[in-house]
């Protein structure tokens, strides 16, 4: 699998005026009842999606034109968020982000490969955040892999090997810890590997050098309800 970061080009939103420069930040996050009420027992899965959208349209979309109307003309997100595809982790809900506020990429274990020859179209974001999380299946798979043993799920193993440097560090420095504790350390370690890989992207190098871009690591512990962040230069 290629380690490239290929982002969509898009119609840029109109430049912000002084009066609207912080308009998105001043908007209160749209809220979803958390945890959302369970669907009626026996509801068809497709109907569950349809009813979910209707509730969103009635309770959120129709009531917040000041949030959604500007998005018809384009997007200018502040954040780019890399998050795990795990269904238990939804960064927009967890961090209270508004639509249009974060360009979000989700994959297995929030991993990012190093830059290669493929083209990159970059959004003019100010902050790139890579978020790991507790009890990550991708991290567990990485730590469980044994050299010379055939892969069970070829796609998963090939992908999580991006975090191999962090795995070796955990095995060297945390060998006395129980497996679950090693996973907890590795959850943060693979985030740091991804942050270092991001630094190999030309537009990230440039942004870090001129001070227009920040790289932030994060970890969401949904077991204990905690969220931590750290910055890298």
Automatic annotation (TrEMBL):
Q: Which cofactor does it need?
A: Zn(2+)
Per UniProt, the cofactor note for this protein states: Binds 1 zinc ion per subunit.
Q: Which SMART domains does the entry mention?
A: Pro_CA
In this chain, composition skew of type Pro residues spans 32-42
Which keywords are on file for this protein? Lyase, Metal-binding, Zinc
- Which EC numbers does the record give? 4.2.1.1
Q: What class of enzyme is it?
A: lyase
Function noted in UniProt: Reversible hydration of carbon dioxide.
Q: From the Swiss-Prot or TrEMBL record, give the protein name.
A: Carbonic anhydrase
Q: State the organism named in the record.
A: Eragrostis curvula (weeping love grass)
